[in-house]
Automatic annotation (TrEMBL):
Cofactor: Mg(2+)
A Pfam family matched in the record: Pribosyltran
A cellular-component GO term for this protein: cytosol
Gene Ontology BP term (one): hypoxanthine metabolic process
Enzyme Commission number, as recorded: 2.4.2.8
Family per record: Belongs to the purine/pyrimidine phosphoribosyltransferase family.
Protein purpose: Converts guanine to guanosine monophosphate, and hypoxanthine to inosine monophosphate. Transfers the 5-phosphoribosyl group from 5-phosphoribosylpyrophosphate onto the purine. Plays a central role in the generation of purine nucleotides through the purine salvage pathway.
Location in the cell: Cytoplasm
Catalysis: reaction(s): GMP + diphosphate = guanine + 5-phospho-alpha-D-ribose 1-diphosphate; IMP + diphosphate = hypoxanthine + 5-phospho-alpha-D-ribose 1-diphosphate
Full protein name: Hypoxanthine phosphoribosyltransferase
Length: 209
């Protein structure tokens, strides 16, 4: 859990692209910590779901980096432990943001083939804020009659706007701030940032559409 009063880390302590140096307040989750936590999530998934077929569903675009790293760790565990998880992958794209605001309109793109999903489904997300986007996806998946749906989210945001939804696996619980990096974006910028950082107000205006 990342506390609301977490001071974070100075940008000078990390390798941050020069074109973003003036856009960020601080590093809140360094890349190394993300990787360690993701490895533990992979171990928990293998422990709970080992032996069952999983269709790993990547939520694009913000979830692609977490998805790739998590699957790399699961693959390594498959090769080096007694319990393993057969994996296939699929992709879906979701859009619910305008600038720094989560809208009430959740657009799902690429869900036409979800009817082919069966067995266990591990739904990979990037960040759960209000929970409405995930609830929409779960409703869509339920129409496909999977045996089980498990949600793993790298981040869950503490916010009064939350619907109360909680994923099955959580990487970090974070304050109600706008976070970028590690594939999380602001109008498509900052996906190329390795660490998860807090965006400053100047940057919100600079990259506003």
């Amino acid at each position: 859990m990342i506390a609301d009063d977490e001071k974070g880390h100075d940008l000078d302590l990390f390798c941050v692209p020069r074109h973003y140096e003036k856009d960020l307040d601080k590093v809140i989750i360094p890349h190394g910590l993300i990787m360690d936590r993701t490895e533990r999530l992979a171990r928990d998934i293998i422990r709970d779901m080992g032996g069952h077929h999983i269709v790993a569903l990547c939520v694009l675009k913000g979830g692609y980096k977490f998805f790739a790293d998590l699957l790399d760790y699961i693959k390594a565990l498959n090769q080096n432990s007694d319990k393993s998880v057969p994996l296939t992958v699929d992709f879906i794209r979701v859009k619910s943001y305008c600038n720094d605001k989560s809208t009430n309109n959740v657009r799902v793109i690429g869900g036409d083939e979800l009817s082919s999903l069966s067995g266990k489904v591990s739904l990979i997300s990037d960040i759960v804020e209000t929970g409405r986007t995930m609830e929409t996806l779960l409703s869509l998946l339920s129409e496909c009659n999977p045996k089980m749906v498990k949600v793993v989210s790298l981040l869950v945001k503490r916010t009064p706007r939350s619907s109360g939804y909680r994923p099955d696996y959580i990487g970090f619980e974070v304050p109600d701030a706008f976070l970028v990096g590690y594939a999380l974006d602001y109008n498509e910028y900052f996906r190329d940032l390795s660490h998860i950082c807090i965006l400053n107000d100047q940057a919100k205006e600079k990259y506003k559409v």
